[in-house]
Amino acid sequence: MFVNTSRYYSHINRFRAHFSDDQILVLFFEDFVRDPVSTTNKALKFVGVDAQTSFERPNDPRNRNDSKYRDGALASWIRTVPGYRSLRRLTPSAISGIIRPALKVRNSEQMSWSPDVLEWVVAELEDDWARLLKFANKEDADWMLNANAYL
Questions:
Q1: Domain ranges of the chain
Q2: Among 29, 24, 50, 54, CA closest to 39
Q3: CB atoms within 10 A of CB 67
Q4: Across 116-141, average pLDDT
Q5: Model-wide pTM > 0.70
Q6: Is 150 helix (H, G, I), strand (E, B) or coil?
């Protein structure tokens, strides 16, 4: 499933069946991180909005993972227990408020894959990513095709 969602060119091609290429704008996250104002202005101009819009603190990080939490292993397991949803509805909110944080873990760890899995994923996506880069006239994203860049 993860690999299929990362076939960006295949997704864009579905739009190309209904829209001309000049109606499709492809932006890359690393460009947004490097220059959020310019990249956002490019998107605004593309949709016909004044591209000279000012932004409040455009370089300030937002939605950072280190302030987010996700289910820990115990919480994930509890959700599989028959009757979980019924029990959750019957649990008073005061008790849920105490239990829920104890079952969460900070979402700060970086995803890591074994070299074999990573090599397989890059090999699966390499052709699709190359076509995406060509479609977007993007030549400076070689990292997408290099499994070593992820290790």
A1: 67-107
A2: 29
A3: 10
A4: 86
A5: no
A6: helix
Q: Is the pLDDT of residue 43 over 60?
A: yes
H or E stretch covering 105? strand 104-106
* Residue recorded with tokens 């397989």: 120
CB 12 within 8 A of CB 132: yes
Q: Quick check: helix, strand or coil at residue 104?
A: strand
Q: 135 vs 27, 38, 139, 141, CA distance in Å?
A: 11, 20, 10, 13
Provide the total of helices (H) and of strands (E) in the chain, helices listed first: 8, 2
**Which residues, including other chains, have CB under 8 Å from residue 139's CB and lie 6 or more apart?**
133
Provide the b/e sequence for 9-34 (b: ≥16 CB within 10 Å). Answer: beebeeeeeeeeeeeeeeebeeeeee
